[in-house]
Specification:
mainly beta, five-stranded antiparallel sheet
Length: about 625
Amino acid sequence: MNRTTTLFLVLLLPAMLLYRVEAGAQSVTTLETGNYVCALAKDLQDNIYVTRYNASSDDYEVVKYTDGTGTPMVIYSGLNYDGADYPWGLVVAANGDVYIGASNVDNKVIKLAYDSTLNTYTSATYLSGKYYAALAMDTSGNLYTTEYNSNFGSYSVVKYPYGDTAGTALYNLTAFGPGYSYPTGLAVSPGKDIYVTECFNSQVGAYGHVYKLTAASNYATAATISSGRYSTALALDPEGNLYCSEYDVADSAYVLNEYPGGSGTPVALDTLFPDAGYFFPWGIVARSSGDIYYANGDDGIGGGGSLLHLVAAPDIQASGLTFSDITDSSATLHWVNGNGAKHVVFMAQASTGNPSPEDSTSYTADTQYGNGAQIGASGWYCVYNGYDTSTNVIGLTSGTTYRIMVLDYNGVPGSEEYNTTSGSNIDNVMTSVPLPLILTDLHAELKQGVVVLSWQTLIEVQNKDFTVEWSTNGKIWKAIGNVLSKAADGNSMSPLSYSFRFDHPTSGINFFRLLQHDLDGRARCSQTVQVNVPFPSIADYLIFPNPVTDGCIISFTKEPISGKLVLRNAAGAILKFVPITGRQVQVNMSELPSGMYYFFLPGGEKMIPVVKK
């Protein structure tokens, strides 16, 4: 890398050995080294963006780590630098557009417009003509910069409303001049409070500050969060904790400090390279309080500005597990996320016990119960792994008790740190997923021109009733009756038998089904059954006259049959029974009004149509 000694960063510190802070369940891994990483940013999907040096082209580029891991994708290259100026500004908008604060060699802010369909970026100059150091963005899409203000001879915090290139200075930083650092740290909270680093120069006794500018005061005053620590980079996590790369006199080295809640006494999370005024740690981004990416700078001896990833188990577990849309084979799970970067749901056919996933182990999810990754041979299967707060699980067995637990975790595949605490997370909720109703033996039979439906239930849970539906084509259905549940409260674990009589079938195929309703309003259909009501053959009988005025005679052409004819009107109502005494039957119909009528032969399998004038 063609670099010169950094003239404006005059900070003479003794050389120290590199070491790591390992506080509790925490690990630090190196994603890359030797590339003099500067700025860091993340998008809403927790992909990580980095400005880094490219030795082959001797310039800086922007790369994207999908989900913060793997081989990064280069999304922009050709950023200029010199020994005193680097691309320190980087931020990603909610729509995926990337804004780059190019170095003072270029004096501009570059916008990379993102095409999510093609996963490509188109570059254009967004701001120009000033020295831009740090960049940040609030939840409304407003862009913030630290940029040189020639009216004051120093840097100012400037706000650019969403989509607007005309900025407004919110606060003027006072310390700047030859030998001073640039204000490279900038972060904006969801409430639009601003955190910014002040410039430093040890030769004149200016050791730097971190200020908080409150939106409530219209950014008129600055509260000092940190002082005298040569602060360089800032970031906020979703819980409002502030992270800062700054010098720790006690450790005689730069450290990654956490300010819980954005103020107070810092907690050192990791020790970075000691610095002799060569290349500072200029980048931090926090996906959560235990999932932090940061640059460690370079002391001019080795290391080359590595990109590091600190992972610790979340300290707030998921909670509030509830269930909806429970069916015989599925259920939708809902929960409230803790403060982990991601959330994993395990499920087992059990009524006791808790899952114990192993750290640094990835579990692939599948919403089909039993198909996802299992924790060893424990019977706990992964049914969800991601960022959401709900999932629908299928492939469940009715009448079975399932135990479910939602766990928060930090880290990328292979470096996960799980919060396995139970008790308060979901209160060890168990859920039973019974089949609301188990229906068997739906049967339809034709008797004396009447269709009799019968069925049985083995189990009923919150069952209200059955609507009997009829169709002549299997497509258009008509409700023909209702049968209430025989269970007093809609619940029964013993078999119950039901029947329904339909008096008005038509000749040909008649289709029947049940529409079962739960007490909570949910409904489900049974299978379809059918009955064939045959037309009688013209060779089986003679009827004269037809149409009828007062009466008619029905003659049977085959052997005499015994029993009774059943006379029905067009609506299916039974009007009379006519005994069969031989080959001929005389029927009086004088009292009947004009219309269509039907004689059903014994057995109800054949009918004879007749018209009354």
